[in-house]
Amino acid sequence: MKSTKDIKVSSKLIDQVVGQEEAIAIIRKAALQRRHVLLIGEPGTGKSMLGLALAELLPHSELKDVLALPNPNDENEPLIKEITAGTGRETVQRAQIDSKAAFKNMRYLTFILAIIVMIAPWWARHYYQSDIMFAAFFLGGMMFLAAFSVMMNIGPKAFGGEKIVFPKLIVDKSDKTKKAFYDATGAHAGALLGDVLHDPLQSFLSSNRLNLIHNSNKVCTENIQKIVNTSLLKHQDKLITKEAQNYEAAFTSINELTTFGEVEGALKPVEVLSSNRYDYHGEMIKLTTAKNQKITITPEHKVAINKNEKIQYIAAKNIKIGNQVISKAEEIILTAQDIINTYSIKQQEQCRLYYQYKEIKAAHPFWGYKRIAKAMGQPIGKTRWWHAQKHIPTPIQRAQSLEKQGLLPLTLDHPQLPTIAKIIGSTFGDGGIFQTLNAIFLSSKEKSNIVEFGQDIEEIFNFQKSNTRIIRGGINLTSYCYQNTNRDLIRFFVALGAPVGKKTKIKLKIPEWINKSKELQTEFFSSLLGSEVAIPKVHVSKRHLNSFSFAITGVPEVHESRLVFFQELKNYFNSISVKTGKIVKKVHKSELSPEKNYLYQIHISTTFENLINFSKNCKLNYCQYKREKLTKTIKELSTIKKERYQTLISEGYGAEHCMKLLQLSPRALYEILNETEFLIKETEASYA
Q: For the chain, what is the domain count?
């Protein structure tokens, strides 16, 4: 050989791979058996080359064209059909030819009508002996001929027929000789395999009792032994048994048992999939914490401990003295006193006197109302009414009503707290509470949004339907407004931190309890962003997106509080890996308000990965239109990026250079090439 050009190189890519003999054998076998292959390794080891070789080895006969056919039942959901590769274009052309068959003779018909129209005026003049009839027939004929020609150009739709929709060729393999292969180089293993966490059920109470959630969403406490025995008896015909230790087990039916468990650091409803019981012979371990909390368990039972600021689950037998055992304490975020504090100083004083009366009465049950009044230094008439259980202060009546509904005291593990956070978030946006405290409301151009808002309120409170109404609003009555006048409901949300009155003139402060868990933050900010965020769309140049921002107004007196509010919003965005810009303030002029206002705005990065992070963490509550618009924007931008990436690759550019030009991270490129569907919607979480 005189040079390397004399070396014979196989035309098959699989034969060009060097140093990966075992992988080559696996690839050949996978291509023969049509199997999937997972390639993991350091960059430069030949993963992409092996993947391309696999696509080359797959038989050409298996290639398919994909057609989108019109769906007569739902035009928004076309029918998808696979056909043999290379026949897609023929199918589309045949459909176009067939659709024109009904009108192929129209040119002859038009010619005949034109002749009739030209002859008719002369016949009318001869028959009627009148120039007026000649002009009438001539003008009428011309108008008829023009209208007929226009209708012919419009097509069958003009005659009440169905609109002709041709099949659309989505995937065309007519000029392809091998399977498609997309290189997603750079995607880290975690993006493919995901994060695997251990989530054991940790919701037992004292005395071996367990919280169960019934179909009516009511929470009750039952003995764990009774629960297991009842479940096994119900499924005794499907019991799984073992002689050792009298083991018995059974799978529960769907939605048969629901309790609380730890999910992402918060208590959420989880479904019980199976139950079992068996005899245990051996030692038990009693764990005692510094706060004298005790639990007796088997040595193999997993217990959550705090190690290096992280929660780890280890067997009880491996726990040592000094380990920090994690236990969830009841954390109260709202009490009756918080409800009372929403009233005036005068009413709060009356509540204090009432509680003083109750304390004296409890300490001296035989004292009459006159003696208690003298001890308190109050009029006899006041204690007489309280003695008769009448004229109890209104704030206390509100608190007692909320206690009956199980909303006071409100604890951090309350099952409806996420829904409460969702409603609170909307009051910082398009919702709110009137200055007179006579209604809580939400406005929206979409009626479905305020209906959903009302359903969420009904899920929490029991009130009369007469307290609610939906009215039309806006300058041209283009919006809807849900209003609820229930006084318990209003005071409840005021106590939790909902803004009251015109938000432009008041300080906005995010309630501290919102930051107690990630789920509460998600619900709160999803409602706030659903009201106030401006969703971008693809610019006409198809090079970038329009502005993606969040903005609210405020008078000069609330400047400092607005900066704090926006900083908390930026902190939330940072926690979900959404990049934002600086807080911008500018003078805001409005025809509806002559007062001087400022517009506070924060821009959100429009990179594809930032959109992904936003869509996966912000559901945009109570705004169906914005969810659909964001979904459409991401889908359109993904298509543009994918087409430009493939063009650059075909021109010989490397993957890293393409990502840099398109401002794509490895993760974003992975999502685009795999055509991940980003559907922003409110979903019901399912647990296993």
A: 5
